[in-house]
Amino acid sequence: MSAAPPPLDVPPPPVSVVGIGADGWSGLSGGAREALREAEVVIGGARQLDLLPPECAGVRVAWPSPLRPAVPRLLAEHRERRIAVLASGDPMFYGIGRALAEELGPEALRVLPHPSSVSYACARLGWPLEDTEVVTLVGRPASRLAVSLHEGRRLLALSADASTPATVAALLTAHGFGPSRMRVLEQLGSEAEAYVDGVAETWAHAPGDRLNVIAIDCRASQDALHLGAVPGLPDEAYEHDGQLTKRHIRAATLGALAPAPGELLWDVGGGSGSIAIEWMRTHVSCRAVSVEKDPARAERIARNADRLGVPGLRVVTGPAPSSLSELSELSGLGVPDAVFIGGGLTAPGLLDACWEALRPGGRLVANTVTLESEALLAERYRAYGGELTRLAVAHAVPVGGFTGWRQAMPVTQWSVRKPSAAATPPVPGDRT
User: Fold this and answer.
1) H-helix or E-strand containing 314?
2) What's the pLDDT band for 328 if we cut at 50, 70, 90?
3) Alpha-carbon span 95 to 115, nearest angstrom
4) What average pLDDT score do residues 270-282 get?
5) β-strand partners of 202
């Protein structure tokens, strides 16, 4: 008699990811309730687990803090059982759904969304959802809201806790948006739903419920500095000691760097950080690292980044090219999509190190005002191609009772794209 074939591997059941609102069990669909009743293990925040009735008999496991590192361990511990994970509102909108999809793959999930707090807020306010910008401040600095401040815009800020509205009011006032109307909507979707209304510069409401969303009608004061949505911010937007890529050159440089969503920039010789900051301001997913050897300037870069709404800018203090090795060690950064060299071009090995680090197809842009560095860029252009450009800007200034032009120092710029199969650019003097 032949032996029975070995049992086939049976994949574990999909993980049910159930969105739940402040209205709790009563607000869930029939399918969501069924998934929670059938679950042998229910994982969620303590507040969410308390919303479930006794008929959900599965073992209840509260997320520890910090949450993200615990996801693989908890899923592995209960992988052979029917798991349901609770999430606030829509699990795939700033929720636990992203971490679960990254860990298990989307095919291993059954996501049952609930209306998000953003959907509720827009419904209460009568704001079209597609015209409303959402900024999360949960686990993130409030300063990231600054990049979204524009006259007439409507913003929803997802609060970290009850103290967030007062923090946001102070930030709006400091950035010249004190006249903005603020409405704090609490416990959206529940019987305890409430809201408070006011103006940022006179905000005096005491902290309320920790579950809140802040609606902001952006209104700028008359003396607010106008910061546009494209590169080329006014020079006075930056704190600097003279080491600043000036406005018109900066706009041309960002045009050559051509940032795209999700891309990473190395800004070598950061100065005041303006190139990296405006790279990151082009899209919320853009990332950048600024390398600056002077500690005082490095601190200034961080202050500028925080004030201009991109606190995620990483600053590495040290000389290039030796400090460039640190960049590859920074967690999760990966290889750069673009490199800008704003200073130190004549440092031995700097240009080669930047080129080697750049991904195939990536862009390198280098600016200089000195003859020595210009000669180096001309040599590289002659040997390696790309574009060599002379940028000259003149400003109208008083000349006695008349007006004349004052020429700024011209900037030589080399921009080049790295081929898919790239070799190290020839060293200066090598024309083979």
Assistant:
1) strand 314-317
2) low
3) 12
4) 96
5) none
Q: Tokens 């509205």 — which residue? A: 165
Q: Tell the residue number behind the tokens 């790295």, with chain if given.
A: 418
| Ramachandran area for residue 358 (φ above 0: left; ψ -120 to 50: alpha; else beta) | beta
> 157: closest CA among 115, 94, 205, 206?
94
Mean pLDDT of 355-375: 94
Report the alpha-carbon distance of residue 362 to residue 124 in Å, rounded: 46
Q: How far apart are CA 359 and CA 419, in angstroms?
A: 9
Other beta carbons within 10 Å of 181:
14
Residue 54, classed as helix, strand or coil, is coil
Contacts of residue 181, defined as CB under 8 A and 6 or more positions apart, other chains included, come to 197, 198, 199, 200, 216, 217, 219
Looking up tokens 């971490």 gives 99
Beta bridge partners of 314: 289
| Token pair in block for residue 295 | 């500690």
pLDDT in tens, 84-95: 999 999 999 999
Give the three-state DSSP class for 141.
coil
User: What does the DSSP assignment read for 208-271?
Assistant: --SSEEEEEE----TTPPP--SSS---GGGS--SS----HHHHHHHHHHH---TT-EEEEES-T
CB 17 within 8 A of CB 28: no
Amino acid code (one letter) for 57: A
Helix axes 274-281, 295-307, angle to 10 degrees: 20
Listed in sequence order, the DSSP H helices in 282-387 are: 295-307, 324-327, 350-357, 371-384
Say which residues have a Cβ less than 8 Å from residue 165's Cβ, sequence separation at least 6. 159, 182, 184, 203, 205, 207, 208, 212, 214
The pTM of the full predicted model, rounded to 2 decimals, is 0.90
Q: How far apart are CA 375 and CA 18, in angstroms?
A: 62
